[in-house]
What does this fold into?
Amino acid sequence: MSGDGDRAAERKPPATYLRAIVAVLVLALGVAGVVYGEADDSPGLQLLGVLLVVGAVVLGVRIARRRR
It folds into this structure.
């Protein structure tokens, strides 16, 4: 019976994977915002894109640190 508890402790909750997927999608959206903002010469869109990228990196680091 102790083997079942060990396997349960090794599993990651689905919410962790969902947060990682959201972080990757936000990162992609931020990069697209920066690229499109540069092509359209829109500094506001570039700023929003950079903020999205920074937020996604922070979220990714938090996820990685909690996994340990």
Q: What stands out?
A: The chain has a mean pLDDT of 85.
